[in-house]
Design goal:
Blueprint lengths: L21 H14 L8 E2 L2 H8 L3 H13 L3 E2 L6 E3 L20 H8 L25 H13 L15 H15 L8 E4 L1 H13 L5 E6 L3 H9 L3 E8 L2 E2 L1 H6 L5 E4 L13 H14 L2 E5 L15 H4 L5 E6 L11 E4 L5 H12 L4 H12 L2 H23 L18 E5 L3 H13 L5 E2 L17 E5 L5 H15 L2
Parallel strand pairs: 5-6, 5-8, 8-9, 9-10
Antiparallel strand pairs: 1-3, 2-3, 4-11, 6-7, 10-11, 12-14, 13-14
The structure holds pyridoxal-5'-phosphate.
Pyridoxal-5'-phosphate binds next to helix 7.
Length: 488
């Protein structure tokens, strides 16, 4: 049998796997060469018979590949005169150039310095921070409400919706805040967000100019600090103590455009901002023409005493933006939260959100509205609060009497985690590493401080323990493992 004639174009490197669709592979190989310029516009492709012979495949496969290329415009002139690569000047990409050496934009540089660590993978373990008892979530009820909504959604809710969020959900959130927090606001002041984080990020985007100084609790919620830093803010760490943010230190810090605070349960150290300090903070905002972002991320979890009125409920000047979330009552992946805005800011925040993402997905908003309206939400809050309390008790009761270098555990009246001081950074690392070796997660308090904090490193050391993530029996097992790991 005569050897096939050499091809007029270089198709070296085309390797076809006989176990896969041959026409498809040939089509992809030719398309790739056309797009990267190896087969230039105007090049005549070999006749289908020659190509089939050379590649050892049927002519039919070659014809199908050519037909596909022709249909998509990669080749032209099928009839009689042969098959030519189409002139695709705009589409042809040169081979990849070496990575750009252009300087990164300021935004990219800030992100390189301020971003979240990758989330911890897998089901929660003791003592993961920031995770509620989502093993108790009533998924059956949620699935039923969800199926009911999607079986017959009203046409009015399927188009582009209000960027501020679903009207029914906003009404229910306003009613909930009125009853549970004494926060009187209109539904029109509510902006539904993708969790508290997006609410904080919107505040950063809209209230802060590049170079503005922003007061941040130190230690504090680093993800909030990052959001403000990425918006161009200069972060100013303000000390916290058993009563939350030290308002005298805030005064001493000089002019700041905004203060970010967690008054109902300082994150992560656990204090509650006293009434006197709440009033001082509001006064600060008035005198300095500043904003206050009040993050009430776990306000549902108060185990004793009456909660103090939120700053937003005491605000007479329209300076407080209140952040709430469903993610600590339901589960974090729900990504549903809200902002209560001073009326003057509502329009701007809605516009910004519309540009970002139009609005949150309707399904979870509508189902959450039903969940609240039918009373499931309130029931679930009670269940979650009681579970968090028992899990807290399991931790407090089972924690070793004496952990060398570690202060006794504090009383815990609120929230989903506790924080305990450790003598030195070296001891903090040692305790955490030994715990990790037996599968127990402890978070380092030193990781919650702003970079360049004035405090000596050893006084930043401690442990942060989330107690709500797993049931009591698993807490007991983890404590047993810790005792062995720490040799006490
Ligand atoms: C203080 C604080 N604020 C906000 C959030 C974020 O909540 P969300 O999941 O609703 O974005 C967290 C999450 O851990 C938090 O600890």
């Amino acid at each position: 049998m005569p050897l096939p004639a050499p091809l007029p174009v270089d198709l070296s490197g085309v390797r076809l796997d006989p176990a896969q669709g041959l026409a498809r592979q040939l089509y992809q190989a030719l398309r790739e060469r056309i797009l990267d310029g190896r087969l230039a516009g105007g090049t005549r492709l070999p006749a289908s018979r020659d190509l089939a012979g050379l590649l050892g495949i049927s002519r039919n496969s070659v014809t199908r590949a050519f037909d596909q290329l022709y249909a998509e415009g990669y080749v032209a002139g099928r009839v009689g005169a042969g098959t030519y690569v189409a002139e695709l000047a705009a589409a042809v990409r040169p081979p990849p150039a070496p990575a750009s050496t252009a300087p990164a934009s300021q935004a990219l540089q800030r992100l390189a310095r301020h971003h979240l660590a990758a989330p911890l993978e897998g089901a929660p373990r003791a003592f993961r921070v920031g995770v509620p008892a989502f093993d108790l979530f009533p998924f059956e009820t949620w699935a039923r409400l969800s199926a009911r909504f999607w079986r017959k959604p009203s046409a009015a809710r399927l188009g582009y919706g209000d960027p501020a969020g679903d009207g029914q959900l906003r009404e229910l959130i306003a009613a909930y805040l009125r009853n549970s927090r004494g926060l009187h606001c209109e539904p029109a002041q509510i902006l539904v967000t993708c969790g508290a984080q997006q609410a904080i990020s919107l505040c950063a985007q809209l209230l802060v100019e590049a170079g503005d100084r922003v007061a941040i609790e130190n230690p504090g919620y680093r993800a909030a600090a990052h959001a403000f830093a990425v918006a161009g803010a200069q972060l100013v760490g303000i000390a916290v103590d058993g009563e939350g943010l030290d308002t005298a230190a805030l005064e001493r810090a000089g002019r700041c455009r905004l203060a970010y605070v967690t008054p109902s349960h300082q994150y992560p150290s656990g204090g509650t901002l006293s009434l006197a300090r709440r009033l001082e903070l509001l006064d600060w905002a008035e005198r300095h023409d500043g904003w206050i972002v009040e993050d009430d991320y776990d306000g549902e979890y108060r185990f004793s005493g009456t909660p103090l009125a939120p700053l937003a409920a005491l605000d007479r000047q329209g300076r407080v933006l209140y952040v709430g979330t469903f993610c600590k009552i339901a589960f974090p992946a729900l990504r549903l939260g809200y902002l209560v805005l001073p009326p003057a800011l509502v329009e701007a925040f809605s516009r910004r959100r519309a540009l970002d993402m139009r609005h949150s997905e309707i399904g979870s908003q509508a189902v959450m509205a039903e969940f609240i309206a039918a009373g499931h939400f309130q029931r679930h809050i009670r269940r979650m609060r009681s579970a968090a309390r028992s899990r807290r008790d399991a931790l407090l009761a089972g924690w070793p009497q004496q952990v060398p270098g570690c202060a006794p555990l504090p009383a815990v009246e609120a929230g989903l985690h506790l924080c305990v001081r450790v003598d030195s950074l070296a001891r903090e690392r040692e305790l955490i590493a030994a715990a990790a070796a037996v599968g127990v997660e402890l978070s380092a308090l030193s990781g919650y401080w702003l970079a360049h904090s004035a405090e000596p490193v050893d006084s930043r050391a401690g442990l942060v323990l989330g107690f709500a993530a797993v049931p009591e029996a698993r807490i007991a097992e983890a404590l047993q493992a810790l005792r062995q790991a720490w040799g006490i």
